[in-house]
TrEMBL record:
It is found in: Cell membrane. It comes from Aceticella autotrophica. This is ABC transporter ATP-binding protein. It comes from the Bacteria. Probably part of an ABC transporter complex. Responsible for energy coupling to the transport system. Part of an ABC transporter complex. Responsible for energy coupling to the transport system. GO terms for biological process: cobalt ion transport. Its main location: membrane. Keywords: ATP-binding, Cell membrane, Membrane, Nucleotide-binding, Translocase, Transport.
């Protein structure tokens, strides 16, 4: 079922910079989609169109059929949760509890429901007991989880993550990958993430779009896109490293490979066939 549709979108910044050119993307409910591309490709610009932080110069973006535009902004923000690259840009309350409560209070959720929802979201991200802590004194990985809990608490249809693993150590990366996969699988929440870390893509994404100089130059399943190695090289990206994938999987004993959905199996399959092609 179609969840997000981006149709013929162009985006021009005020200084005349054409950051997105004729973008057409359809994302289905439950998908895990990676948008990969080098620096300056337009990933962040595209993401800001998903929740209305930016409006397309031309073309349309819809979420569950609802156009992303100023008059629908509050409804869109309930459907689309954003996790920024730098958690410090997102966390501004003095306790973890207040941080997760912030969006809920804006939705007029109060009383027992408020407490229940906060406890639920913190439990999912593994931060039960952190309610009174200051988000600013947490580790990078913990901050990312607080940001994720704040978004989850709003029960969005889709979570959009900009460079989710940037600045995390290998343990933090594998832990976050497992968490995001289980949120997708168990809660049915669609995930879209932008990255130029190709190593995490087979562990997290079912579908991939390659973005370069504001244009989608290729899209398909993870295997289909990573078979196009000439295109990857042309835009300055490389294939995921087998060693890195194995390290990520092996790094964390708690990481249950079976809970990483098809992508790990798929990654193994395409790495194998790549080697013996
Ligand atoms: N506020 C702005 N005003 C003018 N141009 C901008 C602005 N923000 C971004 N750009 C330009 O738009 C293009 C796309 O930038 P964007 O930040 O979306 O790329 P990105 O793929 O997210 O890059 P990175 O991986 O480095 O974060 C770049 O050429 C960038 O210089």
């Amino acid at each position: 079922m179609e969840l997000i549709k981006v149709s013929e979108v162009n985006y021009v910044y005020n200084d005349g910079n054409l950051a997105l050119k004729n973008i057409n993307i359809t994302i289905s409910k439950g998908d895990k989609v990676a948008i990969i591309g080098p620096n300056g490709a337009g990933k962040s610009t595209l993401f800001q169109l998903f929740n209305g932080l930016l409006q397309p110069t031309s073309g349309t973006v819809t979420v569950e059929g609802l156009q992303v535009c100023k008059k629908n902004l509050s409804k869109i923000r309930c459907k689309v949760g954003m996790v920024f690259q730098d958690s410090d840009d997102q966390l501004f309350n003095s306790t973890v509890f207040q941080e997760v409560a912030y969006g809920l209070l804006n939705m007029h959720i109060t009383g027992e429901k408020l407490y229940e929802t906060i406890a639920w979201a913190l439990e999912i991200v593994g931060l039960k007991g952190y309610e009174k802590r200051s988000p600013h004194n947490l580790s990078g990985g913990e901050k990312k989880k607080v940001a994720l809990a704040s978004v989850l608490a709003m029960k969005p249809k889709v979570i959009v993550l900009d460079e989710p693993t940037a600045s995390l150590d290998p343990h933090g990366v594998s832990n976050l990958i497992e968490l995001l996969n289980s949120i997708n699988k168990e809660l049915g929440i669609t995930m879209i993430f932008a990255t130029h870390d190709v190593d995490i893509v087979p562990l997290l994404a079912d579908r991939v779009y390659l973005l370069s100089k504001g244009e989608i130059i290729c899209g398909g399943t993870t295997e289909e896109v990573f078979y196009r190695k000439e295109i990857l090289r042309k835009i300055g990206l490389r294939l995921p490293r087998v060693a890195h994938l194995i390290e990520l999987i092996a790094h964390d004993e708690a990481l249950e490979i079976d809970r990483l959905p098809l992508t790990v199996g798929k990654a193994k399959k395409w790495l194998y066939s790549w080697k013996y092609k």
